[in-house]
Amino acid sequence: IRFGQPAKVAAAAVILLLASAAFWFLRPVKQPEPSLAAMQNPRSDVAAPSGTRATITLANGQQIVIDSNQSGTLASEGAVQIERAADGTIAYHGSATETVYNTLFNPRGSKPVSLTLSDGSKVWLNSESSLKYPVAFNGKVRPVEITGEAYFEVAKNPAMPFRVSVAGKGTVEVLGTHFNINSYGDETHTHVTLLEGSVRVALPESQPVVIQPGQQASYANGLQRGIGISVKNGVDLAAVMAWKNGYFNFDNADLYQVMRQLARWYNIQVKYEGKIPHRVFGGDMQRDLNLSEVLKLLEKNNVHFRIENDQLFVRP
């Protein structure tokens, strides 16, 4: 086929148009780049949590997000109602013959969340912690399981002991009492502190111990397991319960212990630069402060910090 001059021009235009369309169709879509201001000015502070970000996982796997402003009935498990009061407390009401479990998870960067179990026992859950529990208690014991940190006020029932499994490491058994368990996976020890009543702390590989108010039972986690349970007298109960009452407590805590507390509360990653000197801290500090305000006080111990978005850099 031969084209005259006008036809050749028209054909060239069509080919050019098709090539252009193919170019635009095949070219990868360019992702928006962060603004220059964001690159030059990374976030240099982190606010304290303003509410809860907890979730409840029901027996069927459904997750219920606990909104700080939400109240009323959250869900039902058979004849058991899960409700959230105006003060934020989650409560289970009703009874059931079948034993089914729910799990309350409170992530990093979330205020403590409180829960009333079906027997009337109350639990406060710290950030980065979980509680697994029956929606209603049946049988000879009241079993629950925790990870992280929780404070319990157990309703008395001599006929049905309350038993806490601590992340598969040990058990705490009570009839009715007030106690705190700190058992974070990144800490070296689990601590069970008694405020009222008595509890029995047991490990598979050692003799159980019974502690009294003001005592703390401790045992090693991880590779240090097998050493047994030690008991400390005259524990500072206010320091143990500082987290529930809105404070950090750095009672004889080294820098790494302090940073682990901050990481859970502010939902940040901590990175260390250079050789960090050994430092020990003490005292209480409000937990409603911005991270930068906490760091200013810590820097008086000759350690320096830098915040970049969700990362905290620690340097000499």
Explain this structure to me?
The protein is of the alpha+beta class and about 325 residues long. It contains five helices and 25 strands. The protein has helices at about 5-25, 35-40, 235-240, 255-265, 290-300; strands at about 55, 65, 70-75, 80-85, 90-95, 100-105, 115, 120-125, 130-135, 140-155, 160-165, 170-175, 180-185, 190-195, 200-205, 205-210, 215-220, 230, 245-250, 255, 270, 280, 285, 305-310, 310-315. The strands form four sheets. The chain has an 18-stranded mixed β-sheet that branches. A three-stranded mixed β-sheet has the order 21-25-24, covered by helices on one side. The protein has a two-stranded antiparallel sheet with strand order 19-23. The protein is globular.
Short descriptors:
disordered N terminus; three-stranded mixed beta sheet; 316 residues; alpha+beta; 18-stranded mixed beta sheet; 5 helices
Q: Report the order of strands and helices.
A: HHEEEEEEEEEEEEEEEEEEHEEHEEEHEE
Portion in helices = 10-25%
Strand count, sense and closure of the main sheet? 18 strands, mixed
Taking all residues together, what is the mean pLDDT? 86
Number of strands: 25
Q: Which segments are poorly predicted (pLDDT under 50) over 5 or more consecutive residues?
A: 1-32, 34-39
Shape: globular
Cα Rg: 28 Å
Strand content: 35-45%
Which structural class do you get from the secondary structure elements?
A: alpha+beta
Terminal Cα span: 81 Å
The number of helical elements comes to: 5
